[in-house]
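Pasting as-is:
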Amino acid sequence: MTRSAQPKRLYLTSAPVSEANGSPAELNPSLYNRNDVSRIDFSGAGGYAVPHLESLPALIEYLSEAVLVVNSSGSIVCINSKAAQFLGHTQGALRGHCWPDFLVKRYQPHYHNLVDMGRRGVLSQQQKPTEMAIICVNGDIKDIELTLSYLPSDDPLLVIVMRDLTSHKAECYKLHTLACTDPLTALANRRHFDQMLQNYWDECNKTQSPVSVLIVDVDHFKQFNDQYGHIQGDECLRRIAAAISLAVPRGQGLAARYGGEEFALILPYHDEAMAKAVAVKVQHYVSQLKFSEQGLSDDISVAVSQGFASEINGQFRTPFAMLCAADTALYRAKAEGRNCISSSC
């Protein structure tokens, strides 16, 4: 066999190595005993090899990430101080502990599936990051991004890198809330209303449950603005929004600023009678508003006109059609003298 045809043999080291008949790459003497380096034949596969198990604690301790190494049964073989601090215990106490026990239950099957893939040799050496959640020693639940790398050997080792997503997800939630909220009234904005209308429509259709929409318009609001100014008008809208929020059943539905002085409510699992009952509450809470705290006269009051529509037996083919029906009912209420409620039926 010629030299070029000979199979490549790789040293088990932490750095790229040459062929066995060449000069092996120099190792860091503080971490490795060169004479004790094992060999493993990858049948010509190139790349990086794996460090000694004895060297792993020293290697991962100096990494900037929270890292732990577990065997195929899930026991923690070694863990760096950052990961120990993240989990809320000492390194010594965590070694030998069953790693999957820290995972929130719904993520455990995915982890075990990765381990099984490793046993069958179908797990790539480095999986893409995935979001999971862990339960720390003190009981706190933390969202994490987990990267899992597979180290092939007789007993496969899994190198797990954890990144704390708590602040990241909190910031994302804050940005999502800002993107979905009307800045003046703190109700949902039109964009979020449109999205949730479709979601509630699909949900209720799937369970063959009723769903209703209610549109609320402030009567003669332009006159209020013109007489008392836009600052007072904005405060008036804020207080009306708070009154409308009181009428929405807790945990059911959504109240939104639909545009200008118009508001809209989505009421899942509400038939016509239930939707009208919510409209009556809106009428009542708005009528109780007083504006003396704003420096206005006690006799100043506002009123609203309302229109609603309910999807029960398939009369509306789309949520937009139901919304149009509620809008038509609103204009009917205005034509009938305002400060009243009208149904699409």
